[in-house]
C-alpha cells in the first residue's frame, strides 16, 4: 500500500481540477471569439492560450511541491499557502477577465 494514499489521491484530483479549469476557460474564450465570425486580434488568442499553458505548468509545480510535503515526516501547518496557489488563482481570474473581453469584443 502507498503511504498517505488518500492525501496523494486528493493532490492528483486537485491537479486534474486545475487542468479542467484551464481547458474550459481557454475553450470557452476561443470558441466564443470564433463563433461570431468577426476578426479577433491574434494577441488575444495567444494571450488566452499562453495563460492556460501557464496555469497547467503552475498546477504541475503545485502538485509536485505538495507531493513532497505529503511525504515529509514533519507536521504541516494547515494555514500555510504555497506560492503556486496564489499565482494559479490570479491566473484563473485573469483568464475569466480575458474571456469577458473576448465576449465584449465579439458582441
Pick out its properties.
107 residues; mainly alpha; 3 helices; 79% helix; elongated; transmembrane helix; membrane; DUF202
Topology:
Blueprint: H1 5-35, H2 42-71, H3 83-106
InterPro entries: DUF202
Pfam families: DUF202
Domain DUF202: 6-67
Structural overview:
It is a single chain. With 107 residues, the chain is mainly α. Helices cover 79% and strands 0% of the residues. It has one domain (5-73, 80-106). The protein contains 3 helices and no strands. The radius of gyration is 17 Å and the shape is elongated. The termini are far apart. This is DUF202 domain-containing protein. Residues 6-67 form the DUF202 domain. It is found in: Endomembrane system.
The proportion of residues in beta strands is under 5%
Per DSSP E runs of 2 or more residues, the count of β-strands stands at 0
Helix content: over 70%
Shape verdict = elongated
The count of domains is 1
Supply the number of helical segments: 3
Unreliable spans are none
Overall residue-averaged pLDDT value:
80
Q: Characterize the biggest β-sheet.
A: none
- What distance separates the N and C termini? 55 Å
H/E topology pattern = HHH
Determine the structural class based on helices, strands and strand pairing.
mainly alpha
Radius of gyration computed on alpha carbons: 17 Å
Protein name: DUF202 domain-containing protein
Pfam family, one: DUF202
Keywords: Membrane, Transmembrane, Transmembrane helix
Subcellular location: Endomembrane system
